[in-house]
Structure formats: structure tokens, C-alpha cells
Amino acid sequence: MATAVMAGRPVAVVSEYGPAGPVRLTLWDLTTGRSRGSVAARLGHADVVTAVAAVVMEGRPVAVTVSSGGYGEHVLRVWDLVTGRQIGEPLCPDFCSMTRMAAMSMDGWAVVVTEGDGQLWVWDVAGRQPVQGPVVGCPQAAGGTALITMTIEGRPVAITGGHGGDGRVRVHPLLAGEQGAQESDVVFPQPVTALAVTSDGGLLVGFGEQIALLERMS
């Protein structure tokens, strides 16, 4: 699931399944709780859609879906949330796995960050090409990772948290090359299971049965 803003209203973008697999992306108005219709009649993925993200690309809200699974397909597709149509050709990289994804806009540039096999890749959504990767250091603990994107003091970063016994939260500078300042890991006493960004730039971390709020010290 992902969230977006359409015509000034917050919506949730949810992939729904049928007997043969993923069927469509459905938009839900988060104010009224009502459906705003479907984006795609058939997603086209041969396997399970593992992640959905939403971002603004060239002034329009779009959804990005990624699939990965037993058939060996790793496909990234972009969907126009207004017209419901797929934008461009699907991206089918054969050099990395994509099981989780997060998106962000930077100065009007839409990017998604994918994670798989313990590596992070950064993709230009409009250009359908990788712009950074692999960004190493992503935990490979059992059960996968939690992944989000945000900015810290104006710098774009990806933040990962490990499952399966890994209580670390890691910050990965994006698009900064060797000049990116490395943040220290934050270690929690139980496995990290969820990450979220607050409206004022704080970081919510779910670990065990607890939630912590991390804020930058001034």
C-alpha cells in the first residue's frame, strides 16, 4: 500500500488480488473511506506484487509497482493515477532483486529506492534507469527489512530496519557519492518491524511491541 494526493485529497493506493494473482490498483479516499476507482484492470505481473509506492512525476501523481517471486520476474511498472494507464515500458532488470520499495521527489525529480538481496538501488522513474547502486550495508536478516525514504537536513536518505532479530536502524545517504556523511546506526533491544516518517520530519520506529519517536538534536 502507498499514499498519494490527488486533487488536494489524500488517497491510499492498494494492490488487490484475484484467483490468478494481482488484478488491479484501487484508490481509496482517506477522508471519506470510499473507493475512487481502479487504476489498472490487470496489473500484468506474472508473479506476486511485492511493493507499491507513489510519487509525483512531472507534476502528476503516479504509482510504481514491483514484482518478485518464484518465476524469477523482477518488473517495475509506472502507472498514471489520473488516467489509470501504464506509463512507458516496464523495467525488467536482470542484475538485482526487488522485494521492497520506497519513493521520493527531489526538486521535481521522482526516484524510487528498491531493496533486495541486501542491496539498495536508486531508480529514475521517468528515465527507467538506475542512478545509484548497489548501496551496500542493508541488513539481510531473516524476514526482510523495513524501508523508507526521507530527508535529513536537506539530504535524501534511505532508512532500513532489519527483521529476524536485527534491532538496527541504518541510514544510507542517497545520490551523494563519497561525499555523503554517514549516520551512526541506532540499535533497539528488539527486532525493528516498521518505519514511518512524521509530518514534522521525525522517525517512528516499531520494535517488538513498542514504538519509538526519533528526532534530530538541534
Strand and helix order: EEEEEEEEEEEEEEEEEE
Largest sheet: 4 strands, antiparallel
Low-confidence stretches: none
Radius of gyration: 17 Å
Distance between termini? Answer: 33 Å
Mean pLDDT: 81
Structure write-up:
The chain has a domain at 1-97. Helix content is 0%, strand content 55%. The protein contains no helices and 18 strands. The mean pLDDT is 81.
SSE blueprint and pairings:
Elements (H helix, E strand, L loop, with lengths): L1 E5 L2 E10 L2 E9 L5 E4 L10 E9 L2 E8 L7 E6 L19 E7 L2 E8 L2 E6 L4 E7 L9 E8 L2 E8 L5 E6 L12 E2 L4 E6 L5 E5 L2 E5 L4
Antiparallel strand pairs: 1-2, 2-3, 3-4, 5-6, 6-7, 8-9, 9-10, 10-11, 12-13, 13-14, 14-15, 16-17, 17-18
Q: Which features would summarize this protein structure in a list?
A:
about 220 residues, single chain, 4-stranded antiparallel beta sheet, mainly beta, Quino_amine_DH_bsu, about 55% strand
In a nutshell, what does this entry contain?
InterPro entries: Quino_amine_DH_bsu (IPR011044), WD40/YVTN_repeat-like_dom_sf (IPR015943). With 218 residues, the chain is mostly beta strands.
